[in-house]
Amino acid sequence: MENTATYDHLITKLVEFGFSKTDAIVYIALLKFGKSSGYKVAKEIGLSRSSVYSSIDNLYNQQYIYLTDSTTKEYSAKAPNILLDELEKRTIDSCSFLKNELNKIFSEEENQEFIFNLTGYDAWLKKVRETFHSAEKEIYLNTDFNLSLFKEELNEVISRGVRVIAFSFKKIEKTHPAIELYCRLNEEETLYPSTRFMMVIDMKKALIFSNSQNHSQGVFTNNELMLKIVAEHIHSDIYLSKQQSIYQTAMTPNILINSIHERVNNLSIYENISNTKTDEEDRP
């Protein structure tokens, strides 16, 4: 072939469809030279006759080439359009079978308890987007991340009637009017990069993630205890915010209990109630 890069790319693509490298070279040679014996192909491409004969047997058994003369043992390559149509159909059929059968196994596995560790921002974002699509009834969120990161996924689940309930200490943008968003403080979130994410899907799966400059890590689980703890945490934040708004009760530093948690975390719950806001129109 004149264009070495194109030739190498063709070899690579055929290998991706299950050809060995030698099988791919022999198939392309038969396309180029037409009806040929194994001896002629070996001579033209510079490979040993034993390697070429072995590849011819493989290609013939796979029905990628034809035996055109049984006396002279000459072979011809199947036309690329026909071959690729057959490979495409075989691939689609295989993918369909695997999708159905593997999903059965996955569904059975989901009924077993699991706890997966997530490391890194990209792994977290991919898992969140994937998990959104499994929602059927309700999603609970507690986060300071911009919801536009998941806009497409949120729109999709809402279009299916899934209820989305979200909490953030400070105001974040709603990406869909149906999102029930509750905020503790009446000021825009300005702390970036975002650090906190908690999610519960249908009380079946939970995902917790902490993002920092030094380390980004999280947990994805269906453990019942973890589900209850995360869901209760999100609901408690919403209840407290609603209570502050309804009763105009300010939270002050004298509620602190002098714990390690308070000392190592930057807590924002002690702002004056005048800065507090619950998204009234979103209440169910």
Describe this structure in words.
By secondary structure, this protein is an alpha+beta fold. The chain folds into 2 domains: 4-78, Winged helix-like DNA-binding domain superfamily/Winged helix DNA-binding domain (Arc Repressor Mutant, subunit A), CATH 1.10.10; 113-282, Endonuclease, Chain A (2-Layer Sandwich), CATH 3.30.870.10. It is 45% helix and 18% strand. Strands 4-10-9-8-5-6-7 form a 7-stranded mixed β-sheet, with helices on both faces. It has a 3-stranded antiparallel β-sheet with strand order 1-3-2. Helix 7 links the parallel strand 5 (138-143) and strand 6. Helix 2 (21-33) crosses helix 3 and helix 2 crosses helix 4. It is elongated. The relative contact order is 0.09.
- Sheet having the most strands: 7 strands, mixed
CATH architecture field of the largest domain: 2-Layer Sandwich
Q: Tally the structural domains.
A: 2
**Biggest sheet: strands side by side, in what order?**
4-10-9-8-5-6-7
How many helices? The count is 9
DSSP E strands, number: 10
From the 3D structure, determine the CATH topology of the largest domain: Endonuclease, Chain A
Give the overall pLDDT as a whole number: 86
Q: Strand fraction band? A: 15-25%
Structural class: alpha+beta
Q: Specify Rg, calculated over alpha carbons.
A: 30 Å
Shape: elongated
| Helicity, as a percent range | 40-55%
- Topology as a string of helices (H) and strands (E): HHEHHEEHEHEHEEEEEHH
CATH hierarchy, class of the largest domain:
Alpha Beta
